[in-house]
Amino acid sequence: MIIVLKPKATPESAERLLKRISDAGLQPLHMPGSERVVLGALGDERVLAELALDGDPDVESVKPILAPYKLVSRELHAHDTIVRIGGVAIGGSSLVVIAGPCAVETPAQMRASAMAARKGGATILRAGAYKPRTSPYGFSGHGPAGLSILREVGDELGMPVVTEVMDTAEVDLVAEHADALQIGARNMHNFALLRAVGRSGKPVLLKRGLSARIEEWLLAAEYLLASGNDQVVLCERGIRTFETATRNTLDLNAIPYIKQRTHLPVIVDPSHGTGIRELVTPMALAAVACGADGIMVEVHENPAAALSDGAQSLYPAQFETLMKALAPVAQAVGRKL
Ligand code: PEP
Ligand code: MN
């Protein structure tokens, strides 16, 4: 419920109403604006109706939040949220480019891949220390040792780092090492993990689930915001369709749809979205053209020797070419690179 107060309403009347909302067991929200104070109340619709706030002398209007995702919706929060990862802002006028290898393999591999990412113009470094793998026999990452390598290389190159966390038991450890926590596609529906990562206070990169509808994805983001964390970046990474020519089908419809309905930044991962190195650059350009706030790309110093996702990882020179091609597209849509 969105509760707009009358222009004459005092801070005391706002406080009184907020108390009525919380006393009823609902979650109160306070959104003072330049002209009007707006309050929010989240929770059981029947309790909201019983409160009859529209009869209160300080209330001008009460309207329901129609979207099932409330905190994520633009209905409640009209302005774009800017998420800060290290010193990098996501969601403003600048595009963000996150790059790095799929996984942390060795200190030398991580350093060389990170240098390639930075040389091309990426400002945030990515790599997984915990890798969700379809097969239990695949390389599943170096865990804590991988986190240390990633942190060290990020510090050496002055780049904030984002890495995946797969388990509630590892949230604290990953949060100690990373500037942002990634929730991978396979864990988008892991509600205990969403809550734990929400409570960590770290910025979050929330990937879309393999078969998740946009609404389910935004409700997963709602879990993070409902746990007290509004520093959430959504990441479209392709979905399963009947098409098998590419690893996934990159759903670029989702970008303008999400930008219109939510205030959260949204980026695109064309590496997992296509699974094919040659398709990464064209889809990265398309992502920026349709309004994405940035891209996340896998770059490996030597993709042929990568322990995971080599076929979709760019060679350093290809990443430089991508970044050069991106500049005029960014300019055309009024974004800085
Ligand atoms: C990744 O970014 O390395 C990854 C595993 O991605 P996703 O969860 O989108 O498959
Ligand atoms: Mn990968």
Would you spell out the secondary-structure blueprint of this structure?
Layout: E1 2-5, H1 11-23, E2 27-32, E3 37-42, H2 45-51, E4 59-63, E5 83-85, E6 88-90, E7 96-100, H3 107-120, E8 124-126, H4 144-157, E9 161-164, H5 171-177, E10 180-183, H6 191-200, E11 204-207, H7 214-226, E12 232-236, H8 254-261, E13 266-268, H9 270-274, H10 277-289, E14 294-298, H11 316-332
Parallel strand pairs: 7-8, 7-14, 8-9, 9-10, 10-11, 11-12, 12-13
Antiparallel strand pairs: 1-3, 1-4, 2-3, 5-6
Helix pairs in contact: 3-4, 3-11, 6-7, 10-11
The chain binds phosphoenolpyruvate and manganese (II) ion.
Key features of this structure:
single chain, alpha/beta, Alpha-Beta Plaits, TIM Barrel, 2 domains, eight-stranded parallel beta sheet, binds phosphoenolpyruvate, binds manganese (II) ion
Approximately how much beta-strand content do the residues carry? 15-25%
Q: Based on DSSP secondary structure assignment, what is the total number of beta strands?
A: 14
Bound molecules: phosphoenolpyruvate, manganese (II) ion
Distance between the termini: 38 Å
Pattern of helices and strands: EHEEHEEEEHEHEHEHEHEHEHHEH
Q: What class, by secondary structure content? A: alpha/beta
What is the average of the pLDDT values? 96
Q: Could you say how many structural domains there are in total?
A: 2
Note the total helix count. Answer: 11
CATH topology of the largest domain: TIM Barrel
User: Which geometry do the CA atoms define?
Assistant: elongated
How does this structure look, described?
It is a single chain. The chain has 337 residues and is an alpha/beta fold. Helices cover 36% and strands 18% of the residues. It has an eight-stranded parallel sheet. The longest helix has 17 residues, at 316-332. The radius of gyration is 21 Å and the shape is elongated. The two termini are 38 Å apart. The mean pLDDT is 96. Bound molecules: phosphoenolpyruvate and manganese (II) ion (MN). Manganese (II) ion (MN) binds at residues 102, 272, 298, 308-309. Phosphoenolpyruvate is lined by residues 102, 128, 132, 184-186, 207, 237, 272.
